User: Fold these one by one.
Assistant:
Number 1:
Amino acid sequence: MKKYPLLLIFTISSILIAGTIDLNNLDHYANSNVPNYITKDNTPNNNPITDAGATLGRVLFYDKKLSANGTVSCASCHKQEFAFSDTAALSVGLNSGLTGRHAMRLVNARFANEVAFFWDERAATLEIQSTMPIQDHVEMGFSGTQGDLPIDSLFIRLEAENYYQELFTFAYGDANITEARIRRALAQFIRSIQSFDSKFDAGLAQVNNIAQPFPNFTAQENQGKALFIAPPGGPANGAGCQGCHQAPEFDINPNSQNNGIIGNAQDPNATDLTVTKAPSLRDLVNALGQLKGTMMHDASMTSIMDVINHYNNI
C-alpha cells in the first residue's frame, strides 16, 4: 500500500486510549515537502494549512460520528489505500444508499489551478465542498430534509465529545463548533494529502526539464511522455493530453469541458452532461501497476487503455 506523507490511519478510540495525537508534537502538515517544480496551489489566503487545523481535519475525516447513524465517515468513500477514492463504482452511504457518482480521488487536490470541486464543479471551493456530503440525504444524512436531522444536530453531537472540545480549542482558541470551522479543518487536511514519489518525479528531478528524455524511463515510456506533452499535428504529432491534464501536477485545466463521457452510473438509460472536472492523473496505480479503482465519474472505464482509446476515438 502506498504511504502518504504525514498521514496516519487510526480510529477515534486510539486518541482516547493510546493517546495517538500528541498536541505538542504534531505531524508537519504546514511544511510538507513539495518539489520545487510544483507551482500550482489552490489554497486560499484565508485558510492556510496549519498543523493544528489539519490534525482536526484528519480526525473529522475518519470519524463516523459525522454521519447521522454513525456508520459512515468521509474515509468510507475516500479510502487512503486507493488514492482516497473507492474501488466500488458507487460508494455506499447511509442505509445502503449509493452515491450518484464515483468517488473522486483526493490526492493532490491542492496542487491545481482549478478551485471548484465535485465532478460538476458545483462547489466553488474545497471548503464549501467538504460539508456538502455531510448534508446529503444519501451520503451522511444531516440534510434537514426527508426526516433527516439538520447539520446543527451534528455540532451538538461533536460538542459532547471531550476530544473535539480539546481539538477545536487547540485549532481555533475555543471549543465552539460551527460549519465554517469544520469546513476549514477538513479542507486543510484534504489539501495536505499529497503524492510526489513516482517514477515521473524521480526522472524530472534528474533532468529538470519535462521535455527531455528521463534517464530512468524506458524508450517506450519516454515516447509515451512525448506523446502526452505534444499537441496533435506538427513535427511531434502528439496526443495532446497535456492540453487538459497539465504536467507536472497533471491537474485538469479549469477551462476544460465535458470529455464525451456522459453515462449515468445509477441509470444506464440516463445521461450526465454536466461533468467538466477531473482529479489529478497522479497515483492512478499502485507499485505493481494495478489501477486503484475504476475511472471517470460513472466508473465506466477499468483500464488506462480504455481511457486512451476513448480520447483517440473522439
Number 2:
Amino acid sequence: MGSDLASVGVLVTSVSRDAIDGAVTQCGVGPKRRDGKLPAHVTAYLTMAMCLFAEDDYEEVATKVTGALDRFGCWDASWSAPTSGGISQARQRLGRATLAEVFERVAEPVAERELPGAWLRNWRVLAIDGFEVDVPDTPSNRAEFAYAGSGANRSAFPKARVVALAEAGTHVFLAAEVDSIAVGEKTLAMRLYPRLRRTEVLTADRGFYSFAAWGRAAGTGAQLLWRAPTQLDLPLVEVLTDGTYTSVLVNPKIRGARRRQIVTAARAGGDIDPSQAHLVRVVEYDVPDRAGNGTGELVVLLTTITDPGAARADELAEAYYLRWEEETANDQLKTHLRGPGKVLRSRLADLVHQEIWAWLIVHYALARLIAQAAQAAEIDPDRISFTRVLRLVRRSATGSAAVSP
C-alpha cells in the first residue's frame, strides 16, 4: 500500500478530478468567471475530507488536506487556506446534487471472481438495507426531514433515512437513496431496484418484501434471494429433487376462486402473468437457538433461481447469510467513520444531502482500497481491519502526504 494511496490520495484515486468536473458541469454549479471563490472541485474534496475528519472544524480540515490536494493537482500552493465562512459559502454553491452525481459516476463493483464471499456461482451477491442519520435541529432540517416517534418518544433530532445497495463481498455501496425518516425503507428501495443487473443476485431481509417490490426487482432480470415474511401464503406447486419446492407469490388483490385457479395453473406448468403471480423456489432450514433453550428458528427463503442445478439449497442459504455484510458496512459508516451517536454537521437541508453523499463516497474509497489490498493478498476483505485502515489514512492525510505507512 503506497503512501499515495494511504493519504488524501485514497480519495483522489477513487474519485478522480474528471468525475468531479463532470458532475459539476452536469449540475451547473461551476464558476462562471474567475472571482477568487473556492473552486467547485476543491469544495467537493474538502467536503469529503470533512467526513474523513468528522471531529474537526472546517478550517482544521482545510489545513490538514490542502497540501495533499496540491500534490494531486487539485490545489494551488499559492492559495491561502479557506476560512470556515468561505467553505460554508462554497458548499452552498456546490448544492445538494453534485456529490450525488459524483457518487453515481465513481461507485462500481470491485470484487474479482476469486474473492471469497462475493459470488453465488456466476452472480455477484448484493444486499439491500437501510439506516438512519441524526441531523442538526434547525428550521431548514426540520422542514426537510422529520422526527422519529412522537410525544414523549419523539427523537431528539430530525433524522434522514438512507437505503443502499452494497456489494456483499467488499462492503462497497453501489447505489443509495436519501430522504426523510418519514419516507419508509420499502419506498426508497423501490427507487433502487431498477439499478439491478442480470449478473447480480440481490439478498434482502423480510422487511423489504411486498408483491410489488418482488415484481419490480425481478423484472430487471437480476436474481432474488429474499427472506419470506411471516404468515406469507406459499402454496406447494412442486417438490424438487433437493427437498426445496416451488410456489407462487400471488398478487394479494386476487382472492378466492381466481387465486385458486392461478395456483392450479402453476401446478400444471401453465404460463403465469407477472402482474398476477410469480413462480418462486422456497428454501427452508432451521437455525439453532444460540441461547440453548431448544426453540431455534425456521428461516424461509424465496428465490427466482428455480433450478436446483443452478444453485443448491446450501449455496442459497450461505449466500443469504452474506446479506449481513451490509450491516457491517453500515457499522463502518456510523460507528467508525462518523462516530457513534454523532450528529451530522450540516445545518441546511441541502448541505445534509451533500454531506451524506460525501460520507458514502469516503466509505466507498476506503472499502475499495481494502478490497484491492485483500485481492492482491488473496485474502477475505473481512480480515483487514476497517478501523486500522481508517486510522492510517487519517494519520497520513496531512501536509504533503509523504508519511510512509
Number 3:
Amino acid sequence: IRRHGFEVDIAMDLHPRQVAEKVRKTRYHMVGITASGRRSLASAKELVEIIRTFATRVTHIVLGGSIVEGGTNLKAMTGVDHVLFDVPSALRACGLLEEDETAVHDAP
C-alpha cells in the first residue's frame, strides 16, 4: 500500500474496540484485514462488527491474506465490503486507485 503512495497505520495486537476507536478518530479510506486461516475468520468478523458499530464514518473494509484462496463466501462470513487477492485490487475496489494504478487520493 505504501508503494502506491498511501500512509499505513498498522494495528497488530490491539483489541477490536481499540481498532474501532482509531477508525472513529481518524479518517481512513480503507481498513485492511489479513487472515491466514479459518480460525482468524471469527476474529475478523468481530472486528468488522465492532468497527461498523462504533465508527462514525463509512469506511471500506477489505479482507485479504492466504484465506482468500479458500473460495468460500468470506464476504458473507465476515461482513467485509471486499475480499481481494492483492493490494492494487483492494485500492481500486475502494476507489483509491485508477485502472492504470495511479493513486487518485491521499489516504491515511
Number 4:
Amino acid sequence: IAPSFEIAEKINTQLGWIGNLKSDGRPILGLDAEELTKIILGAGESCLVIPAHMMTPWFSLFGSRSGFDSLEECFGKYSEFIYAGETGLSADPAMLWRLPDCRRITLISNSDAHSAPHIGREANVFKTELSYEGIAEAIKSGSRERFLFTIEFFPQEGRYYYDGHRRCGVSFSPQETKKRNGLCPVCGRALTVGVLNRVEELADKPEGFRPENAVPYKSLIPLRKIIGEVLGVGPDAKRTEGEYEKLLQSFGSELDILLNVSPSALSEAGFPEIAQSVRRAREGKVRAEPGYDGVYGKARIFPKEEREKSAGQKLLF
C-alpha cells in the first residue's frame, strides 16, 4: 500500500524491470518477498507491505507448499516491517490467533473484492481520520480505539477450508487426511491441503484462544445470499435482486442492514424472515458445508429440514 500515486508509479517502474506487470491482474514476479519488501520500502518509508490471504494453498505466506513457517523465513531482515497480514476467505482471526506470528501482527480483512456485488464481503472498520496516515497508523498499532473490527466471511465458505480433491469430489477434515496419509482415496495422489490443516500444523495455542487487546471481528453472510435462501432461489435471481433493492430503499446500505438495523425494524417493514435470518447470522447460528480445493463452501442459516417444515406449515395454513 502506497501513500501517493507518485510512489506507486516509482514502485511499478522498478517492478517492471523484473517482470511484466500488464500480463495478469496479479502479476507473477521472479523475486523473493524480502527483495520485494526492500524495493517497496525503498520507494517510500510509509508504504505498507501486507501479505494477503496468508494461509491459502499453495504458495501464500503460510501456504502448505510455500516453504515458510514464519514471517522471518519469508521476509528475512525486513520481517520487523511487516505490521499486518490479511486473513483470506478460508480463515478468520480466531483461527489465526493460534499462530505465534499472527498474534504479533494486526489481522486485516480485504479478500474477495473481485466484482462490484462482492466488495465489502470482507472489510475493516476504522474510527480514525480519513487519511493514509490515519489508517496506516491504526493498522500498524492495532489500536482497539482506532481499529474497531474486521468483517469476515464464515471461513467454511472459503474455497480452501478443508483438504480435498475437486476432480474426485473428495473433502476431508485434517483428522481424516492424517488417517489417509494425505492421499486421495480415488486417484491416489496428494490431497490439496487446506487452511484448517495448516493452522493445526503451525498452531501453538488451542482452539478458542484469544489474545488480549486483539482487534475483534464479525462474521457476516451477504444480504443477497440471505434473501436467496429465504426465497428458495439463487443470490443472483431477479426476485432476489428485487427484494434487495427494496431493503436498500428502506434501510440504506447493505452493511448497515447486516450490522446495525434491528430485527424488529426489519419485521415491521415487512421482512420478517429476513429479520430472523439476520439475527441468526449475527449470533453465528449458521450451518456450514466446508469448501475444499477451489470449491466454495456453503453457509445455510436454516437447515434443510427446518426449511421444509416451514414450507409445509405455509401450505397447511
